[in-house]
Amino acid sequence: MIKILKYSFFDLIRSRWSYVYLLFYLIIGFALLFLNNNLSKAIITLMNIVVVLVPMIGTIFGVMYYYSSQEFTELLLAQPIKRRTIFLGQYLGIALSLSFSLLVGLGIPFLAYGLMQSGEIWNFGLLLIVGTFLTFIFVALAFAISLRNENKIKGFGYGILLWLFMAVIYDGLFLILLVTFDDYPLDKFTLAASFLNPIDLSRILILLKLDISALLGYTGALFQQYFGTGTGMIMSLSSLAIWTVVPMWMIVRSSGKKDF
Amino acid sequence: MLSIKNLHKKFGKLKVLDGVSFDIPTSGTIAVLGPNGSGKTTIMKCILGMVIPNSGDITLNDMPVLKQWDYRREIGYLPQIAQFPDNLTVQELINMIKDLRSAPANESELIDRFELHPFLSQKLSNLSGGTKQKVNIVLTFMFDCPLYILDEPTAGLDPISMIRLKELIDRKKNEEKTIIVTTHIMSLVEELADEIFFLLDGKIYFRGTVDQLKKETIQEDLEHAIANILTND
Questions:
Q1: Of B11, B70, B77, the CB nearest to A78
Q2: Smallest Cβ distance to A3: which of B77, B87, B100?
Q3: A96: closest CA among A24, A28, A1, A30?
Q4: How many domains does chain A have?
Q5: The whole model's pTM is what?
Q6: CA of B48: which chain A residue's CA is closest?
Q7: Is residue A260 in a domain?
Q8: Is the ipTM here above 0.90?
Q9: N or C: where does chain B have the smaller number of CB atoms within 10 Å of the terminal CB?
């Protein structure tokens, strides 16, 4: 697996898009920090960018890489390598290279600003952890979708649709439901529903850590009320871990059944 | 060596293999023939584990191959359409496959044979179809395997390379290897094949030597013998 991972990782690291992605974070990081001149505010703004953008880039890269490396995959399938090794290796290669861009791209400006001397280091660390989780989750989902769709356009469409649903539509639907069924006790339902969206979970997780109740929103407030900050964070982190493992398992399952 | 029992495969509603069974007890060259879409490639991909059959058994040296992977060490596979990762050079690709397979390889002799030296540092995306096919041949034959599976090995090759490929296959045959080959070039079949498997409607319709096929269809040459099978049906 390490060999496949290595080839996929370096293949991507050498590609132009990785640099564009890295450069984007560098620019955003420097701009936010030196214009805001406030670490805490910069982290909040970045969080809003990261929880939407990272899943999108993960989805697009995941789908694109899967379809463009089909020839390579077929070549590998004829070699004495397990299918699981091939697909998990490629998946980890992409997820790691995207996480690498994120960590380096945001890390450099924050280090340059003097993050180490401030109390915000753990908040920033959490932002990077959440960004990495979201990368792993959405690349895995993109891979699982692509494996089930022979047609490139369809795979791409479903991937983008999933991202759009999680990042935008989910919140809207949620709000409509809450308003419509205003008369009923919806606490438990709301709590359960927030576990079903990794983007929502990430947002709650960071806001719990930053301890800004004004930004928590309904779901976040419920979270804090039910679990308290500490347990709430552990709950949301472990749910993110589940969100990573389940699509990985889907990759293994559908790759085992597929004809090439 | 290789044994296939009652292999069935459907793609959606399309029945491609409908109970294919055969045994290849010893070494030699077997030509798998049949009209387009008769399931030649599907059989080969089943042996390699790239296509998963709906039912049936495949054993290689008395070991079941379905759901296994390590047995692929014993197989050199030349795919039908040579497609490679575009951003690698020929040398990088060869090194990568050697690394992944971690087995001794004699690529330099093959590179000499097919005069690939000038292309080694070129990106695969810049190569012509024929040159890609030569790279494909090098990747297939650089490992010493008891079984070689060649799907349309002559696609895009010029006459000189074709002769060199024939010599190569002949040499492997003399080394007691088993070679399964599909092709539409009948001269290649006549020169190389010890036995023909003719696939039709998802089954093995005929199995025998070139001479037997000619005798059975009362035809002088192989091309007409095959045309005869197809039109009679």
A1: B77
A2: B100
A3: A1
A4: 1
A5: 0.88
A6: A78
A7: no
A8: no
A9: C
